[in-house]
Amino acid sequence: MQVLSIILAILAFGVLVIVHEFGHFITAKRGGVQVNEFWIGMGPTILKHEYHGTMYCLKLLPVGGACVMEGEDGESESEHAFGRARLRRRILIVAAGALMNFLIGFVILLFAVQAPTDNGFITTTVASISEGSSVLEGGLQEGDTIISIDGFRLLVRSDLNVAMGMSSSTTHSVKVRRGGETVELPSVPFEARIDDGEGGKLIGLTFGATPDTVVSRVQYAALTALDDARLVWVSLGQLLGGRVGVNDLAGPVGVASTMAVTARVNIRAFLQLVAFISINLGVMNLLPLPALDGGRLVFLIIEGIRRKPVPPKYEGLVHAAGLMLLLMLMVYVTGHDILRLLTGRMMQ
């Protein structure tokens, strides 16, 4: 079972990369751009077949993939070269990989999300407050729909924990919707004071739920997808702000290990993790960094402003330097993943 879960995790990760590359592939093909090669997998080629000017390759390792377009990284005289396509078309081709990751992430969530209670999906509307709860001191009332905490907007119920975890204080500024109006509560203490009967303490809040219908499921999946995308930016902000370090990052080995563990525990949780990773890949690829799709978009935007492209040799140098830095980071992070595996500090 453990081996099967590892294989499943590796295949799922590989599929997400293929989906990304297929986004580039299909928009390039539909836009009249010549695709020279389309790979599935990495490493030595097992099978290959040429069809309509494109060499399709199946590689040995079931991870990764590539869409190689004519004139993508240099000049080409072909009228079907990437550089000869209209600017808007090129922007769409470059962004399509990330868009496909967002789309597949949403579709997976649509089928994977499950209402946690018999009453349906939990909302951010306060259903009841226990007597003696600290939130009463800050003015929070039953029936309030929490909009944001310390400026962090709540899309789903779990965002409450995320928002409170972003501050070391237990007192927060809360914005709620009450009776059709927006009310600011500047100082609401979220302190665990209520005895749970088992020796622990609770804040004393319960939240309402919306029935599990097709509409609510689509809405919940969409909000979860947006939330997953936002959490990537939150994590990046924490990294740049020094709240987390590079050693806390996980590379492919760490991600695959976590996916394998989740697959052994619960298939729905595994699918939700796959959706999160897919959306994560989409967001990360749109970051304005050299060698990533976002970096290529920056050069296309510059071209639109200048009304002429940046010389390919300069763009190539920037992407090459960025790729080297990314590979160095990947090697470093992967080394820590392997070290955590060997020392047993990664999830078992």
TrEMBL record:
Membrane topology designation: Multi-pass membrane protein
SUPFAM superfamilies registered for this protein in UniProt: PDZ domain-like (SSF50156)
UniProt cross-references to Pfam families, sorted A to Z: Peptidase_M50 (PF02163)
Major site of localization recorded for this protein: membrane
Spans through the membrane: 6-26, 91-113, 269-287, 316-335
CDD domains tied to this protein: S2P-M50_PDZ_RseP-like (cd06163)
Coiled coil segments of this chain: none
Lineage: Bacteria, Bacillati, Bacillota, Clostridia, Eubacteriales
EC class: hydrolase
Family listed: Belongs to the peptidase M50B family.
UniProt organism field: Agathobaculum hominis
Keywords for this protein: Hydrolase, Membrane, Metal-binding, Metalloprotease, Protease, Transmembrane, Transmembrane helix, Zinc
Compartments where located: Membrane
Name of the protein in question: Zinc metalloprotease
GO MF, one annotated term: metallopeptidase activity
Annotated ranges, domain Peptidase M50: 9-329
EC number, as in UniProt: 3.4.24.-
Cofactor: Zn(2+)
